[in-house]
Structures
1.
Amino acid sequence: MTELKEFAQVIDGYKLRQIEVLTRPLRPGVQETRYKVMYHALAEGLVRNEVEGARLLGLDAKGRPFRRFLMEFRRRLFAPLLFLDTENSPNFNPTQKANFECLRKLATFQTLVYRHCPENACILAKAIIELAINNDVTLVALEMATFLKRYYVERVPDSAQYLYYTEYVERLRLDWVAENKAMESYQAVIAPAVKFKSTQLQISKRAQALVNSLSLYKEKCNTIIFVSGYYATKYIGEMSRFHWHDAIAVCDEAIRILDEKSCTSPRIMAVFKVHKVICLTMLDRYVEALQLNSEVIQAEIEGSRNWFLYLDNQMLVSLKATNYQFAYEAAIKIYSNKNFTAMPESIKESWMLLAAYLILADRNQMINPDIPLEKVLNFKLGRFLNQVPNYSKDKKGLNVPVLIAQFLFLLQAKEFDQAHDKLIALRKYRVKHFNTEDGYYRTQLFIRMLCSVVGTSFTKKMFLKKTADMIKTVTQIPKGHPDQHFKIEIIPYEVLWQWVINCLD
């Protein structure tokens, strides 16, 4: 049902196939069709999966009639996308409006060409090409220029016009190649980290090689797509080396270039701002980070996927800054939004981990929630303790904070045997996957501190004695020390150490 939920979020207020306006209130006496019933249920968040959808229609979720219904329903939802009212919608910036206009006119242009209407196609192509070039819609502009070049050879021979559009074609081809190479480079450096967040220093070498190859196009191409791909590849290389100041400089340069363009993309600029937020956080510049991230959230459409991701970032930075009230407010916005259920499970998994740390803070009396936190966050401790998340595959990444949080919950509950099992798992990870060459010094030391509790029979006095030197060392190592991923230390280890002490007799 995820793809249908996407339609329900996008098409609100627009016509469907056969001119059925699903979102308008029905006239008295007009009977609702199954498609209207399903659409409204999706739009209002009343249907979350296929079982609920089938039950709504009185059908079997695995039966052929329901499958046929889904296929036809999805087909009906494609056509209205061409009629989105982008011009009067506050959800689209000028560049996005121009992009949509180009794509809509492109569909008409292609229809004219294939129905042998070259004169009308020529008139439309001239209107499209200027709009596309002015707004960096390179592929559409290239198709228009290619057609017009051919038109002034085959239909109306004109050498001046032919040469004019030939120059356009050559320039746009270069832009198209540059854009593709830039985006391929970006994808090449983020692909290893799609599921695994552990440090991979080879990414920095790969990124540097790709940036060098893209430099050949940098002076010739200045489109939004190329600039974003080039500088994204560059900041990933700097961040993979933990060069936070250099990464901030890259983000600032990209933001400046995009801001100077006559056409721009606030969403792409937001990506650079969010990565700047990460760098500021790793440098303990929390006030700047939270302020910048708040600006990004306010500029985004509420309930959109990016809006959720930026709130996720706000929650994480707030936890790192031990600003638990701010993290709590971000969490409430996430979980109370009606579009929350439509988010992918991988994103929800990340939220559950952050929610776990927020609840730990609440249990340590760091927050004054207006309502029961665990209830509003739909947090089930049993499920969290027994789940096998994707993070478990990432031995030097986010599986570590999962195990630490599970240990802390069990320690609070005085479930010492189960807590001991989590420490065994942590110790195995430290021995097998961490060494002095890998870095992760703060994380290594904290795991050693936690594991030392076993030899103290979970007594406070012995634990303090065994960990005194280690916690002193941890406090001397900056959180942004070049050796660990942004998300691995969710709440400072010094704070978690104090929480452990609070749980011991």
2.
Amino acid sequence: MNNKQPFEFTCKICGGHKITVTHVWTVLAGPESESWREWGTLEADHQWRYHFKEKIENDENEDSEVERGDFGEFAEDDSDSEPEDYEMFEPESDPEGDEFYVNCAGCDRELEFGWSRPDRAGRIFPVECSDFIPGEVWPEPRYVESWQKRHWPHSDEVIHEQF
């Protein structure tokens, strides 16, 4: 994987040579959440560079379906209880919930891929690239079963299985 030459990729469908990487994640802030997406091209050194970033807007207008109630049915609270202490929520993200997609930039066909390091770290290696070597790449989690069927374990997994 230390090859300094650019990888070669030719899409089976459109003949394109460029690859797009998309990262989707959700940020939680209490009961509210926001989804974000960033995308860019996969470079010759298998690094991805995001050129665009946007918040994913929910297409459904949830407030438009809210029924207005009759305020007469609600009584004023005249109890002696004190107000509740409300928990403050800090924005947080769950990296395990992040989604990564690798697609042909020409026709948007999804490409199976893996990572140069475990736990979705390092560089991205699409299966259809000329320099893809299964034993040196960790699969994207959603492709693990597919790789196991092809007998593509990472070389570290083969060593552990022998002992």
3.
Amino acid sequence: MSQYDDLYDRFSSQIEAFANHREKIEKAKALEGKFNPEVVAKVVNDHNEKGMAVVTEIMTVLFEVESSVEELNSNREQINGGTTEQRNKLEELELNLMIEAISQEDFDAQSDAIKKSLADVDAKLVDIDADLERFNGALARWTELGTEAGVLQA
């Protein structure tokens, strides 16, 4: 479970609520010829108002989402950048093992902690990448929906 799950769930459910209102507007407009134009206009206006209320909710969460994406990207850079020294040390040990400057036992003793640390880092990066992928997907969906609805400018 990620610390960002609640924020993502809130943001994506708001996007889906907005998408639902936009879908209802399009369906109502498609049925204009079968219903009184005033009734269609009332239904369209009603869903426009409800959709705009959801937009207000989205905009209040959007800053938090964008801040979280920046934080995730920053964390990813820090974590990944901090492993360069460890990866070089492991590579040095591997080279020394290959040229028989150290024994397999020495290699194992010296590399175990490095390998565990790198595995932990890789696991953290996988989690960060998963959160980034979810947020970036939701942001792309919001941008597409908001632009189509005229709420956002391209």
4.
Amino acid sequence: MAEELKPVGNDATGYELLARAMKTLLNQFPGLNGQKILFEELGAESGIAFSADAGALVMSERVSITDHVMQSCQFPFLVVYRTTATREFQKMNVSAFLDTLGKWLCKEPVEINGETHRLSSYPAIFDGRKITRITRNNSYGTVPNENKSQDWILPVSVQYTNEFDM
């Protein structure tokens, strides 16, 4: 069995940069229909937000003999869609929305209102950081809240590089 890759550190500055970049990118999704995706802020019964899952993680690091640092990093986060939908078809629509958002983030073509859309590039990150890939898992619903709302989750992970001189 392959060993799970564990972080070797944190990229504290990268956390702030990636959180801002992801908020901007998520809100460019063509299927939002006027909605906004907020950072860690949901209404009691509805809304869409994203939340960092574990911060910005340094997964590997190499230092050259000239003290040039090359890091491979991850920024895992969750997109949370809160709804009071109670019918099966409504819940399936929420799941489909999240799956379409996930496909779009991964640069896969998606169809929205009869038009095909595809993310062409990831946002530029400064200070030596560059997004190389975004991956996602399938969306899933959680146990309903006390007020009968339910959160639907889409796990997403941003892989990026960070290079700098010491």
